[in-house]
Amino acid sequence: QVHLVESGGGLVQAGGSLRLSCAASLSTFRNYGMAWFRQAPGKEREFVAAISWTGSNTNYAAFVKGRFTISRDNTKNTVYLQMNSLKPEDTAVYYCAADLGGLGSPIPNQYDYWGLGTQVTVSS
Length: 124
What we know:
This protein is an all-beta fold. The protein is 0% helix and 49% strand. The relative contact order is 0.32.
């Protein structure tokens, strides 16, 4: 029915970069706000970045703003998270989420669909 599949995670040294991708099977991808969340062992799931369904609004967690960039390509039904200047503290499983009509909310409960996550590990 609906599938969100993350890719692009892996092991990178501190200061390096990764680009995460989330491929969505949503029939009307353009109508969904998209977001990235992350969760490290022993920690709560936390908001990372979001982009509105219009693509005109982005929202970032304070700890990643200036380092990460969220974008979307509606022709590919894909949302991206470009991560630069990675830190060991960024190590987590990163999840993609979709919110019908979403404007860029940082609240997990507002999202309708979730991917299974991709592991990002940043070594010191």
